[in-house]
Amino acid sequence: MEPSVTDGIDLRHYTQGDLAQIRPTLLDVHADAYADRMDEEFVQRFPWFVDHWGNKPGFSCVIVYSAGEPAGFSYGAPNDPGTEWWREYITEPAEASTFAVSELMLRVKWRKQGLSERLHEALLSPRAEAHATLTVDTRRPRLQALYESWGYRKIGQRQPFADSPLYAVMLRSLRTA
Questions:
Q1: Are 75 and 29 in contact (CB under 8 A)?
Q2: What is the CATH number of the domain that holds 83?
Q3: List of residues 6+ apart from 157 with CB closer than 8 A
Q4: What's the pLDDT band for 159 if we cut at 50, 70, 90?
């Protein structure tokens, strides 16, 4: 864990070895963030996704704390070489190394305060990969527009699970020209 504190906000970095320690926090934040949708089967499977991503080599997580209370988190992991599934959506050549941002979530009372971008950048700033990918529910166009303002571009759509929403597939370069 590597803390970073500015203006009362504490951004703490975690790795795969910290999963057992941070898992309860991730589940608690998720339960609060999705309190109005916890009856949905796909939302209820979140613990499986935490374990799936948390056990990937290179897993990285940043949890944001405000006054010692977890306000949100973002996590992801590098795609395994040769499994850049997003390539099916582009025609131009691109370097393959990719960090997949799996989750970015804030508790309701900390939304719309600029924390999501700080959390996202804290997750990506140390990454060595050429690209970051993420998916966003197509029913959330304002969220997609937010990601576009952070440098992502929509390259396609996919529904990875039968009970999941249809997602916009988004790609961002992590290297400046």
A1: no
A2: 3.40.630.30
A3: 138, 166, 167, 168, 169
A4: confident
